[in-house]
Amino acid sequence: MAALATTSSLSNYPRLSISRYRDQLRQTDRANKVDVNYSYRGKAYSYSIRLDKTACHFGNYRYWWLCPSCSNRVAVLYCAGIYVCRGCIGACYASQLQQPIDRLFSRADAIRQRLGWQSGIAYGNGSKPKGMHSKTFDRLVNEHDRIVQRICGATMQMIDKIKGSVSYE
Ligand SMILES: [Zn+2]
């Protein structure tokens, strides 16, 4: 719950775990990329993410993503338009995503503080503080609710369904 109160955590952002393709990958030892199609903030993306594999027991393989940006071998990629590793995500978010959302979180928290509500939008709305005019209260709650909607829209709906398929060369 508290994670929603800050954007410093990577958990707020869309992630793509290699384990999602485990079943498809299990059927082959020749896969070398996954083709992905999705739309992110209204823009369509279609490209391939390269795979690497390491041998594990009983002749099986463990697959990894190769970060499209730096080629590091990782199990999870994070969405910054294209998917990149956690090492690459910082630079991307600093410019395009984290700052606007951070501002929304700060504004929501400033309103919550004024209303005497617990910090963090995950805690929901509280009641009207004693002595505050109803008009002021309504205005603040309305603004707060609009911000919460924007935060949810930005973090939850940035990605419409990702479609991925394993492919070979
Ligand atoms: Zn990277």
Description:
- This protein folds into 2 domains: 10-89, no CATH class; 98-161, no CATH class.
- The protein contains 4 helices and 8 strands; from the N terminus they run βαββββββαααβ.
- It has helices spanning 22-26, 86-96, 98-115, 134-156; strands at residues 15-17, 33-40, 43-55, 61-66, 73-74, 76-80, 82-84, 159-167.
- Strands 5-4-3-2-8 form a 5-stranded antiparallel sheet. It has a 3-stranded antiparallel sheet with strand order 1-6-7, covered by helices on one side.
- α3 (98-115) packs antiparallel against α4 (134-156).
- The longest helix has 23 residues, at 134-156.
- The model is unreliable at 1-8 (pLDDT under 50).
- Zinc ion (ZN) binds at residues 67, 69-70, 72, 84-85, 87-88.
Order of helices and strands: EHEEEEEEHHHE
Head-to-tail CA distance between termini: 43 Å
State the domain count: 2
Low-confidence stretches: 1-8
- Give the count of helical stretches: 4
Q: Helix/strand-derived class?
A: alpha+beta
Number of strands: 8
Keywords:
three-stranded antiparallel β-sheet, 169 residues, alpha+beta, five-stranded antiparallel β-sheet, 29% strand, single chain, binds zinc ion
In short:
The chain is α+β, with helices and mostly antiparallel strands and 169 residues long. It has 4 helices and 8 strands; from the N terminus they run βαββββββαααβ.
